[in-house]
Amino acid sequence: MKRSLVAGVLATSITGLGLVAAAPPAAAAAPLSHIGTATLTSSTDEPGRLAVSPDGTKIWAPSLAGGTTIDAFAGTTSPTVTRYSTGTAADPWEVAFTPDSAAAFVTSTSGNKVVRMNASTGAVVTTIPVGTAPQGIAVGTTATGVRAYVVNTGSNSVSVIDTSSNTVVTTIPSVGTAPQVVALAPDGRTAYVGVSGGVAVVDTSTNTVTSTVSLANGSGHVVRDLVVAPDGKRFYAAHDDNSAGIYSEGWISAYSTAALTHVASSNTSNGSPEGFTQIALTPDGKTLYGAVAGQTSTAAIWWYDTAAFTAPGTPVVEAGSTQAASHDNFGIAASPTANLVYVTARQFPSYNMWAGFDVYSTPSTVPGAPRTPSASSGSGSATVSWTAPASNGGSAITGYTVTASPAARPAPPPVRSPAP
Question: Does domain 33-361 have CATH number 2.40.30.10?
């Protein structure tokens, strides 16, 4: 039996054509299966927040050990690491790739700048001055072009960079207190900025704050990460009260992007300092993963079925390089093109002792919808074309099926010409 996804009707001169991508059956449901580890021994390697390029080929994490190191990972069962440098821009914090996966933009917290790097070679292309202590960054296509939104934690502002000219085109002031993270809606119309006690909503056409959503579970909570669902209907915020100056008991809250209202929340619920450091959605938006900093116990990856968000699945205890107790999971990211989840970790409190990068497989799903379908009519026939789905669901696509609706009519009898 083939698993498939009906992409819908082609809106062309030939109506009623449906396009299906087919692939092998989905595997039995399981949250995560550990398949590979890279153990890092250099004192300059403390990989933090992970970023994966839109084409799925580049996996980067800035080192939190100070300095200028970016760890670029490759492979699954035996991952390797290549080390790049941000040059004179120290303390890299977060990476965001351009939609074509050709460039990476990296925030430098102590340098007060953003570094543009060649995503294939790791070479520094240029540096762009921004506000004070930039941390979070998101890059995407907006109505005015490809823009990078940079959160300046020390300035309580957001710098907007035109990625074609590598210049700041505007700065959004007073977005809220202590902003740290930012996420862009899939359509590029809205940016969500995590601030103390809430999330500021930015209209990217005017680059103004149009609303601020208060967190449902604590006015003083720190927002550690934000992600937006692939369909744009929800955003998820990871937050904690930061009462001990570290990642305290963590929450993940879901909000409607249309009504800007709270939908549901869930937390680690044990009162110990186990907060979420980064969260990630699968390409279909059905599963949410959260990296938890263990510190006082063995850390784990928490996961949620987003359809039943308030009830987390049984946390997955780390394997591979992060199987010891008393450590931090710091970064987590889901591949946009394959059923893989990546995790970075480091030992607590002696961070310089070792760090690790782990790869997990996730259950296979149906392929995404075939893209840019078109059709042209002929005499008793139709020519249909399309490009492959952005996600194959974790397995190779074995074929496509085109159907007509209503069903094709029987061909008329052949017309015979009279004999000469």
Answer: no
